[in-house]
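Re: folding output
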Amino acid sequence: MLQVKNLTITHRKDLRIIIDKLNMTLNDGDKAVIIGEEGNGKSTLLKWIFDPSLTKDYAECDGERIVGNEVLGYLHQELPDSDKKKTLYEYFSESEFFYEETPKELSELASEFKVPTDFFYSDQMMESLSGGEKVKAQLLRLFINKPTVLLLDEPSNDIDIDTLKFLEKIINEWKHIVLFISHDETLIENTANMIIHIEQIKRKTESRITVVKDTYRNYIENRDKSFESQEKQAINDRKEKKLRDEKYNRVYNSVEHALSTVSRQAPSVGKNLKDKMHTIKAMGKRFEKEDENMTQMPEKEEAIFFKLGSDEARIPAGKTVIEFKLDKLLTPDGSRILSKDIFLRVKGPEKICIIGTNGAGKTTLLKEIVKDLSSSNGIKVNYMPQNYEELLNLDVNPVEFLDSTGDKAIRTKIRTYLGSLKYTADEMEHPIRELSGGQKAKVLLLKMSLSDANVLILDEPTRNFSPLSGPVIRKMISSFPGAVISISHDRKYIDEVCTRVYRLTEDGLV
């Protein structure tokens, strides 16, 4: 059993309460997913449960965690810097249980994860692995340590569709506790039987936590129905209040007018009117008390929305945007051939998705396409890399990154846009390095929105957005008037956004 009692987490920098009085108990068989918008404290909660010292530099945490005899295994959202310079063999050998595994057991693990049998003994540097290979390596070492509780921070990031299905199998067949964060709606729908929803409501001034034993789809449907019912009741209550108040005010004004004009020669009439006014005022006080219990409009943390691209970005349907040819796609260090005879033609506002196994070279190919398009006439490209740090200056705040002019009017406009993306005034002043992955992604998306690009190159565009924001992000990209070339393993993104899907193989794009 894993238990959290009365946990409150306060952000040290802006003193904002991000989690308020959380209580939850997890037992064997629970597959609990933590959901919520970007920056709501999901990763902080998972870190605190694993090791409270991981959060002490930036958060004040007050509460109790009861672990008992459970063995916690934690998957980082990003590979720690301390592990990036290690070889795979060095990384695995740091596990105290690594040398207890037999060659047969390691071979079976490698086969399950679809990595080479010598993966554990490779001298390849961890930082040179593809995003999906890094996740696989971390998961493999996790399982070697034989935990009873899996704490997984975005395990679905950067892994291919086959590995996603394997991850679903792992979670569903795990007999103990799984507590995970994921932005992959399909993974959540297929695995979670418990929902922990962290919200920031009232303009991020109040935290609300909902813990429900249910599937994700049922939770969302029931939540929407509850909000809809509450909103209808609140509207109805306000209509009835308006009619009641209008009637009350007419009676009050009538008696008040009569009192002001009553003749002194009619004291009995005046007394009756005073008694009536006393009764009316008492009724008014009763109405005020009733109004305190009136159904409130539901407080709901709305998903973000803004338009991606202007009408100037529109590309005619028949126009060839790109005709890309590449004889050989090499690894970044040029040591081996990943694919050959690659050809890609994109016409008009097509939405292209490239899929493939981890390590196939999708990100490398996308960078080659960016280079090729950057020199094309009439094409204006914006690129969103898988690693946001390739484009972001981590030492400046979002406003400074989006505007280098210092112009007051421009910065006011940018602050307005950031506000629509659920940034607080304090978060707008935080260095970008302190923001969550989703908040960093929002900065890049906003930069695209403010540009005049007519072609977007997106490497895993939905990977850091919450499942609640996912439908909105998909709609934004789908309605972009220009062309989109993307890589994704997000099955809902592929189904809802992409007009054509290519698989990158050793023999080119299929």
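--- second protein (sequence, then structure) ---
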Amino acid sequence: MKLVTFNRQSREDRIGALEVDETIVDLNVAYALYLRNVQHEGAFYALADARVPPSMRGLFENGDRGLDAARTALDYVVKEGAEAGPSGESLRFQKREVRVKAPIIPKKFFHTAGNFREHHVEAQKSGFSHPVLPWIVFFQNVDAIIGPDEAIVYPEHLTQELDYELELALVMKKSGKHFDAARAADFIGGYVIFNDITARDIQRTEMKSGVFSFCKGIDTFCPLGPHIVTADEIPQPNHLSMQLRVNGKTRQQSHSSKMAVTVQEIVAHYSPMSYSAGDVLSTGTVSGVAAFSDDPKSLYLQPGDIVECEIEKIGVLRNPVVSYQELHGGKAARA
């Protein structure tokens, strides 16, 4: 399944699944309909809220039980061609009718880095201050998360070196800690695209202390989407082509097989930090970032740019870049 979070006419967020034609099926309503028509349950709305809740974190917190129920609901609606829920409420939506948001806001966002040796090599060539090798981890600011087609806001009063980093990320489907790579797949519920926006000039200052966080955690610096693809549709996450484009021109192009460690090893390595269902874990970027190129200034992001991140079997995460000053009438934020 391709799972989305969407909002219609400023009402509460809902979760849905994309059909082949990209129609969105409201999974909570679909499961209520299934319970009434097939299972003949009297309390179908209450049971639907418990098993396929209308929030993505709630769905993943139900683990396989929730994901299986959502899949059952989707299969039923597609087979029957249902258009309305038990009380005649809307069941299917066209993308143009709704706002598709970031698919999930996790409790914890494990931001890992250094897993692609090619990124370390390009960093060395550019004279970067620190090696970029496994194992690097820090927590991302979940309030910085934005969804597909939402704007990356360029804060000119803070940085002049805005960079992109294409990453594969995963969503946990159950809690766990202290497990090995052989068990890692049992905890992975799905995959999503992450664009690790970074203010390189801020990063260089932070790296003087050997740490960094602010450079990557500024508001809107965490595009995530366009949807979550459930793990059953991506049995081989270590064999996915990856590409990032700016204004249609390829900047990053690689393959998840080029990681020095596997997705499963990454998940297992950080398990002592304890996962909760619905947590997100990134797997690091590939080569081709602007900062480590021969001419960084010509490649850093600028207002008006369109960034497209594409990963095989997942899709394309697209975000425009807009000027903070233009959004705020030419005024920089006050300290």
